[in-house]
């Protein structure tokens, strides 16, 4: 069964550093997303991406964050100048379209120290 | 502000019983509804989708939707200990932004 692949599975970074989280969506999916889940809290929407541009973003997705699809397969989330409160599980997801459920990757656990 | 509400639980049921999980949503324009299962430390896994009023059955799972009451439910028949997980309700109002809004989840515990 097709899957969404995320790397790395764990990332520890010092406060103020930049991190890049990587995702390979399912190949025939057109819509890509980043969500995060702080330990014990809700899965929160960050950003959606379609046709090589951001289609929606949440209030969380401020200038500290950016997304990119550098080639035909990868989808990245960059977090600049990380803060302690950025520590969370970050999930990439993809879907065939807005009416379809998302397939989530296994996540990257980001710890900012 | 789109809200999706779930009772956090835990909901405890004996093995073999029916587990009933409920979800309400605030946006009357919502069009797609999903149930995800999330094991501790893992990513959400899609188990059911429903788009129109009524019931939809898939194996031991039945999703129920009532748009007038803005209510979605998931029934799990013959509950197994392996069903113990957090169940997330997610709603998509794709004419008002293409993203899923998740509830906080209900933790289900199935006791042998």
Query: How many extended strands of chain B?
Result: 11
Mean pLDDT of chain A: 94
Number of contiguous helices of chain A: 0
**Overall pLDDT of chain B, averaged?**
94
What is the helix content of chain A? under 10%
Please report the distance between the alpha carbons of the first and last residues of chain B: 40 Å
Bin the strand percentage of chain B: over 45%
Q: Quaternary state, please?
A: heterodimer
Largest interface: A-B, 24 and 24 residues
Rg of chain A from C-alpha positions?
A: 13 Å
Helical fraction of chain B equals under 10%
Biggest sheet architecture of chain B: 6 strands, mixed
> Strand count, sense and closure of the main sheet of chain A?
7 strands, mixed
What overall form of chain A do the CA principal axes indicate? globular
Overall geometry of chain B: globular
* Low-pLDDT sequence parts of chain A: none
Q: What is the count of DSSP helices of chain B, taking H or I runs of 4+ residues?
A: 0
* Element pattern of chain A in H and E: EEEEEEEEEEE
- Helix and strand element order of chain B: EEEEEEEEEEE
Describe this structure in words.
The complex is a heterodimer of chains A (113) and B (112). The mean pLDDT of chain A is 94. Chain A is built from no helices and eleven strands. With 113 residues, chain A is mostly beta strands. By secondary structure, chain B is mostly beta strands. Chain B has strands at 4-5, 11-14, 19-25, 32-38, 45-50, 54-58, 61-66, 71-76, 85-92, 100-102, 106-111. The radius of gyration of chain B is 13 Å and the shape is globular. The chains are: A mainly beta (113), B mainly beta (112). Chains A and B meet through strand 4, strand 5 and strand 10 of A and strand 4, strand 5, strand 9 and strand 10 of B.
């Amino acid at each position: 069964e097709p899957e969404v692949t995320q790397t790395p599975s764990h990332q520890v970074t010092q406060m103020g550093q930049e991190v890049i989280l990587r995702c390979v969506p399912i190949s025939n999916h057109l819509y890509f997303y980043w969500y995060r889940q702080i330990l014990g809290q809700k899965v929160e929407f960050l950003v959606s991406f379609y046709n090589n541009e951001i289609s929606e973003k949440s209030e969380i997705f401020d200038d500290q964050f950016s997304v990119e699809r550098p080639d035909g397969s990868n989808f990245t989330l960059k977090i600049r100048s990380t803060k302690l409160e950025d520590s969370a599980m970050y999930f990439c997801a993809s879907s065939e379209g807005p009416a379809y459920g998302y397939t989530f990757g296994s996540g990257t656990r980001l710890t900012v120290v | 502000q789109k809200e999706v509400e779930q009772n956090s639980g835990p909901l405890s049921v004996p093995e073999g019983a029916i587990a009933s999980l409920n979800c309400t949503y605030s946006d009357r324009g919502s069009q797609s509804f999903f149930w995800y299962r999330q094991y501790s430390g893992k990513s959400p896994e899609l188990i059911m989708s429903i788009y129109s009023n009524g019931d939809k059955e898939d194996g031991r799972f039945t999703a129920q939707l009532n748009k007038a009451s803005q209510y979605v439910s998931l029934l799990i028949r013959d509950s197994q200990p392996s069903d113990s997980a957090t169940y997330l309700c997610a709603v998509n109002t794709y004419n008002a932004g293409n993203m899923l809004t998740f509830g906080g989840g209900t933790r289900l515990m199935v006791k042998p």
